[in-house]
Amino acid sequence: MRKVYLTSCVDCPGSDAGDAINDMVEQAVSITRRTFLTHVEVQSLREIELDLSYASHSGQGLMMAGDWHVSYFKSVFRGRACVFFDHSGIEHIFV
């Protein structure tokens, strides 16, 4: 089963949100976008890409796949295996 979007670090609920995010980031292992895509539900990712104003096609502008500022990781978030991407210092988490 592929992972779906759960939350971002700025929208993360709970009084332990900061600690949970920090723990996830400390344990993170860098992965490629290709590997990231094998773990996530594509429609869930596409919705976030549109929310972040990325183009759907290269002829329309910058696509997330071409943005070298975006980094991809695997880790654990609140005891659950996750993958996430970092966009402008904001972690977007999929479980």
Describe the structure.
With 95 residues, the protein is an alpha+beta fold. It has one domain (5-94). Helices cover 29% and strands 28% of the residues. It contains 3 helices and 5 strands, in the order βαβααβββ. A hairpin with a 2-residue loop joins strand 4 (80-87) and strand 5 (90-94).
Task: Note the main attributes of this structure.
single chain, 95 residues, alpha+beta, 3 helices, 29% helix
Oligomeric form: single chain
Helix content: 25-40%
Residue-averaged pLDDT, rounded? 96
Largest sheet: 5 strands, antiparallel
Please tell me the total number of domains.
1
Poorly predicted regions: none
SSE string, helices as H and strands as E: EHEHHEEE
Distance between the termini: 10 Å
What general form does the structure show?
Answer: globular
Number of helical elements? 3
Structural class: alpha+beta
Q: Enumerate the strands of the largest sheet in spatial order, edge to edge or round the barrel.
A: 1-5-4-3-2
Radius of gyration: 13 Å
Percent strand equals: 25-35%
Report the strand count.
Answer: 5
